[in-house]
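Practice problem 4.
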């Protein structure tokens, strides 16, 4: 996996909340789609959500879709087995929530991303992993071994960590993996890397119930997000994979990043933290997509950044169109490109 040299500028300015548009703390302000968009948008949504089409070869199972344009909810659809109050799984979209939590502690001066990652298993004399930084973990370039495979349980560290012998203490399982490459030299997308970051967070704010209270106080409650979190037996939030929320609530998180970490007049994320997430630092050789820090960047339009999860969960942030799209469902990896093309078509309707 290729690693890019550090960039010098963010790709595009982030739009502020328009005057007179309420922040969706309790519920979303609604409005019509732009002139000429609504009919075409309805036609595209029918392709995935029309009755009898919940499961198709093209899309798999589509459960929820939300579009937020210029701060207003302008479209949403739900499958036959879901609805606006249904809390659906994030899978790896949770990684971007982990990025936000790291940013909050960085902004408070309680962590510094250029410092070595404070992981106990790496602190022994002469351990080469001791030099790995928090920033390298955020950018998925620590150099430690981890196979992010979702199908082959005989080779997958991800399956073994989430559901096998590593499930009781996932951060310990991930941290026990050896160094196989020079830190910073190669991109290797890894749920284990994110779980190690979650342990670093817990070491600062507390684990288990203490962590959940903190996460709700500093991030979820200010946004009005009611999320269900999953912790392992060691009390570490599985921030690589397990956050359940409604499509509307995932859209709130996307709006926070679209608004540069500011929410209802209050800065929740430190200045520059969103730019750090959405600036391409690596390229995934398989998809050609860029990767910043716990957020992906579109290969053909680096101004668009997104959170992505297993079974084609998507949270897309498009600054040039002032747009957030959420798609939740159950779609296998072979059909994922079709869903992404469909989302691109929808995004292009709002292009200015």
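Answer key:
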């Amino acid at each position: 996996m290729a690693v890019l040299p550090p960039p010098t500028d963010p790709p595009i300015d982030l739009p502020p909340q328009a005057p007179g548009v309420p922040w969706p703390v309790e519920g979303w302000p609604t409005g019509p789609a732009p002139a000429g968009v609504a009919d075409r948008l309805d036609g595209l949504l029918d392709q995935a959500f029309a009755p009898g089409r919940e499961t198709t070869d093209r899309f798999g199972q589509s459960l929820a879709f939300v579009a937020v344009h210029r701060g207003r909810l302008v479209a949403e659809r739900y499958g036959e087995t879901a609805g606006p109050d249904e809390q659906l799984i994030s899978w790896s979209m949770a990684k971007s929530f982990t990025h936000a939590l790291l940013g909050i502690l960085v902004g408070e001066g309680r962590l510094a991303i250029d410092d070595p990652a404070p992981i106990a298993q790496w602190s022994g004399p002469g351990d080469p992993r001791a030099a790995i930084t928090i920033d390298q973990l955020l950018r998925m370039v620590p150099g430690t071994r981890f196979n992010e495979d979702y199908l082959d349980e005989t080779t997958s560290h991800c399956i073994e960590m989430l559901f096998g012998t590593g499930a009781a203490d996932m951060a310990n399982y991930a941290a026990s993996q050896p160094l196989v490459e020079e830190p910073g030299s190669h991109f290797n997308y890894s749920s284990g890397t994110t779980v190690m970051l979650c342990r670093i967070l817990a070491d600062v704010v507390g684990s288990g119930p203490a962590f959940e209270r903190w996460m709700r106080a500093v991030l979820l409650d200010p946004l009005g997000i009611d999320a269900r979190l999953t912790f392992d037996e060691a009390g570490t939030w599985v921030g690589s994979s397990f956050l359940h929320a409604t499509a509307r609530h995932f859209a709130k998180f996307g709006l926070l990043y679209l608004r540069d970490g500011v929410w209802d007049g209050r800065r929740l994320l430190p200045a520059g933290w969103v730019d750090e997430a959405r600036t391409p630092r690596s390229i995934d050789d398989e998809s050609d997509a860029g990767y910043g820090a716990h957020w992906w960047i579109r290969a053909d339009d680096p101004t668009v950044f997104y959170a992505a999860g297993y079974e084609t969960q998507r949270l897309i942030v498009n600054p040039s169109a002032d747009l957030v799209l959420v798609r939740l469902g159950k779609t296998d990896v072979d059909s994922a490109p079709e869903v992404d093309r469909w989302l691109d078509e929808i995004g292009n309707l709002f292009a200015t």
